[in-house]
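Board notes (copied after class):
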Amino acid sequence: MSKSEIVFGLHSVQALLKSAPQRVLQLYCLQGRGDQRLQKILKLAEAQGVSVQPMGRGKLDALAEGENHQGIVANCRPGQVHDEGFLFQRLSELDHPPLLLVLDGVTDPHNLGACMRTAEAAGVDAVIAPKDKSAGLNPVARKVACGAAEVLPFVPVTNLARTLKKLQESGIWLVGAAGEASASVYQSDLKGPIALIMGAEGEGLRRLTRETCDFLINIPMAGTVSSLNVSVATGVCLFEAVRQRAR
């Protein structure tokens, strides 16, 4: 399986079977499990001509490397790897103001998956992240994303600062989330073409990224907690943009 990928979890496998069934080489399900949620996926696999093999929990656990697989694991051909060229081609084809999410050094795959799930729900056009010192779309991130990773383009880039400059040159405003910003997310205009930039867990935006932003926004905090988890903060900011764009 060295040249393949593992995808697990009910939502992730279902999304994969719907969006790219040709990628699935083999589907493994927990032997003896017969609940409706799993049966729905097995029927979908059958309709798509995907082979299903029952397997004991121990072997499934090994395939998922101990993560919660929910009784379903898919062995797949690697998905399409998106690059900067793909990103700008996609932007040129949009018929609405772009809404992008940039993750500046988010290293926890659980947070990446949660951000992907939120971004897809908010209608984000692509998620961008540095190739190095950042979480990639591994099986854990895909599972937490609940299917979003199978449909929302994830674009790892070699030089994030260069990509951000190119986005600016193409007319996209760079909006960075930072606790010390003077303007709140609710006071800021997020209706146009924007890339929302979220910093790493604990460290926030890197200096060069912060200096590249067109403006910074904060999330007003009413309690004693000084910050939010990056995936929660991403949801607050993205859905404020969604609210403004719906007016």
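Comment from the instructor: The domain at 84-246 is CATH 3.40.1280.10 (Alpha/beta knot). The CA atoms of residues 109 and 136 lie 7 Å apart.
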